[in-house]
Predict the structure.
Amino acid sequence: DVQLVESGGGLVQPGGSLRLSCAASGFTFSSYAMSWVRQAPGKGLEWVSGITGNGHSTYYADSVKGRFTISRDNSKNTLFLQMDSLRAKDTALYYCAKGDDYNPPCFDYWAQGTLVTVSS
Amino acid sequence: DIQMTQSPSSLSASVGDRVTITCRASQTISDWLAWYQQKPGKAPKLLIYKASSLESGVPSRFSGSGSGTEFTLTISSLQPDDFATYYCQQYNMYSVTFGQGTKVEIK
C-alpha cells in the first residue's frame, strides 16, 4: 500500500526557516512527480511546489518562489520542502502528495498533513 | 496562472438528491481536470481524473464531464457519506490550481 508520512512541522517565528520531510513507501518513488499542497486554517487548497520523478525539474507557486525549495532523495524515498523567510501567511497544514502518471499531475495519494505555524 | 471557479460555493441537499457542481477554467485546459473530496480533518481524496475517469474504488454514483473550460461533477444519488467539501484542480500546466471548493451540507 502507498504510504506518505510527513514530519518537520511546528511553530516558527516570522523570518525563520523550517524543513518538511515526506517519507514514501509502497510505490517506485523515483517514477513519480511529487508536490506539496497547503491549506490555511478554514481555507481551500493551494498548490505550493512540485518536482519531477528524477528531481531535474522543479516548480513553484508565485507566493513561495525564491523562499521555498523542493527537493527529493530517491535513494531514501523522501521528499523535502525547505521553507525560508517564513511569513504569517505561510501558516497552514502542508500536505505531501503523490502525482499520477502525468506532469503536471493530479494527486492520487496524500499524506496526513503537517502543521506549520508562523507566529511571534 | 489559470483561475478555477467553482459554483456554487455551498449547497444544501437531502439524501437521495442528484447534486451537480460546476468548475470553470479561465482558459482552455482540454480534459486535464481532477475532482477531490475532503472531509473535516482529513486529506483530500481523488475522485475523478482527466475530467471523466473514475478513480479506482470510488463509487459509481460519482461522475465527471466536460472539456475545454467547463466541467461538472455529478453525484447521482447523494449518500450520508458524501457530505463534504469538493475541489476541482486543473493540471494542464504549472502552476496547478484548485477551485475554491464547494461545501455540500445536509438539508
Remarks:
- Chain B touches chain A through 24 residues (CB under 8 Å).
